[in-house]
Amino acid sequence: MPTLTVDLGDRSYPIHIGPGLLDRAELIVPHLAQKRVMVVTNTTVAPLYLARLTATLERAGVAVANVVLPDGEAYKNWETLNLVFDALLAGRAERKTTLVALGGGVIGDMTGFAAACYQRGVPFVQIPTTLLSQVDSSVGGKTGINHPLGKNMIGAFYQPRAVLADTDTLRTLPARELSAGLAEVIKYGLIWDAEFLAWLEANMAKLRTLDPAAISHAIHRSCEIKAQVVAQDEREGGLRAILNLGHTFGHAIESAMGYGNWLHGEAVAAGMVLAAAASQRLGWLGEAEVAHTRAIVRAAGLPDVAPELPFDTWLEYMGHDKKVEGGKLRFVLLKRLGEAVITGDVPEAALRDVLIP
Ligand code: NAD
Ligand code: GLY
Questions:
Q1: Fewest CB within 10 angstroms: 19, 37, 107, 297, which?
Q2: Ligand 2 pocket residue status of 240, Cβ below 6 Å
Q3: How confident is the model over 8-20, as a mean pLDDT?
Q4: Cα separation of 148 and 309, whole Å?
C-alpha cells in the first residue's frame, strides 16, 4: 500500500492509498486523541460505507457517533454546517473527539471547517470516497463552504491528522463523477509534470474503467505533487495558487450556473481550456498546445466549452476569487504544458476574446 507524507513539521500527516482501507482501524486509531469519533457523511455515502467504517472502528474499541447530511454542492453552506455543530453539541462531543469525513469533497471541506471551528479546533481525519477528493480536496487543509456570491469564500486552513483513500470506494462512483475527478488529475500534469500528462493521455481508457494499477498510480502521483506544493506553501502565499489552474473561470461557472448544476471538476475542466486559450493570447502556448489541452479534457469525458455567460457576469463572479489583489484579477496560466505561472497581466480585451468567442 503506497503511503505519502504531507511534510508540515509537527503537523505532518500520512496519505494512505489502496484497496480495503475502510477495514484498517490501525491506520486511524493512532491519530485519535481519545477513542471517540463523530463520522460526518451524507445520504448517498452513508448506505454504502458508514456501517463498514463504524464496524471497523468499533472492533478497535472506538465509540462512533455519526451525522448524515443532505447530499450536494447546493448544501455546502452555513445551514448544513450547523447540522454538524448541532450533532456535536447534542452528543456532547469533547475537544478530543475526532471528526471523520466520509465522502467526497463537499463532505471533506465541510467536516474540516467544522473541525476547525468546534471548540476552536478538534482533530479530524479524511476518508475521501470520490476520485476528486482522493487526488485533491482531502489533502492540504483547505476547508470551507460556499456563499451564493462566491465559491469557497468562507473557510479555514486546517490540516487533517491522516488521509485514507480507499480505492475500492471508487467502484460505486457514477461515471460522471469519475470524470470530474480526472479534471484535477489532468490539472497536475498541466501545471507540474508534462511526463505525467503524457502518461494520462496514454492511459485514459484504463483510468475511465478503473484499472487498479492505473488508478492507483494516478492518485499517488497527484497526491505526491499536491503534497510537495502544500509543504512549500501551506497557506497560499504564492506557489500554491498554481493548484488553482482553471479555477478562477471554473468557480465563476459553478456560482453563476447555480451550485451543483456544473460539477466542480467539469467547471475546472472547461476553465483549464479557457486558461490554455488565455495563455495562447499572451504568447506562451501555441495553437497545437491549446488543442492538445482540449483533447485531453474531452478524452476524460469532460466539457471543453464553458457555458455562455455575459462578459459582465464573468467579471462579477470572477471578482469574488480569493486570488484577487487590490481589486485586480489574477489568473493561473500556462507557460508551457507542464509549467504554470500566476499573472495579473491579462488585458481585458484578451479576456473578452477568450470568454466571448
Ligand atoms: P461531492 O462531494 O459532491 O461528491 C460527488 C457525488 O458523489 C456526491 O453526490 C456524493 O455523495 C457522491 N459520492 C461520494 N462518494 C461516492 C462513492 N464512493 N460512490 C458513489 N457516490 C459517491 O463532489 P467532489 O467532486 O468529491 O468534490 C467537489 C468539492 O470539493 C467542491 O465543493 C470543491 O470546491 C471541493 N474541492 C476542495 C478542494 C480543497 O482543496 N479543499 C480541492 C478541490 C475541490
Ligand atoms: N485545490 C487547490 C488547493 O488545494 O490549493
A1: 19
A2: yes
A3: 97
A4: 17
Span from the CA of 243 to the centroid of ligand 2 (angstroms): 5
CB of residue 177 inside a 6 A radius of ligand 1: yes
Q: How crowded is residue 305: how many other Cβ atoms within 10 Å of its Cβ?
A: 13
Instruction: Quote the CA–CA distance of 71 and 89 in Å, as a whole number.
Output: 22
Cβ atoms of residues 186 and 43 within 8 Å = no
pLDDT digits (tens, 9 = 90+) for 142-182: 999 999 988 999 999 999 999 999 999 999 999 999 999 99
The pTM (predicted TM-score) of the whole model is: 0.97
Is position 187 annotated as part of the catalytic site? Answer: no
Q: Which residue has the cell 471554473?
A: 250
Q: What is the pLDDT of residue 113?
A: 98
For ligand 2, say whether the CB of 244 is within 6 Å of any of its atoms: yes
In this structure, what is the dihedral angle of CA atoms 304, 307, 310, 313, given to the nearest 10 degrees? Answer: -100
Q: Specify whether 16 is catalytic.
A: no
User: What is the structure's pLDDT at 2?
Assistant: 78
**Among candidates 117, 125, 102, 115, which has minimal Cα distance to 13?**
125
Q: Using DSSP, state whether 238 is helix, strand or coil.
A: coil
Rounded to whole angstroms, the Cα distance separating 268 from 243 reads 11
254 vs 248: CA distance, rounded Å: 10
Instruction: Give residues with Cβ within 8 angstroms of 244, minimum separation 6.
Output: 323, 332
Amino acid present at 278: A
The amino acid that residue 90 corresponds to is A
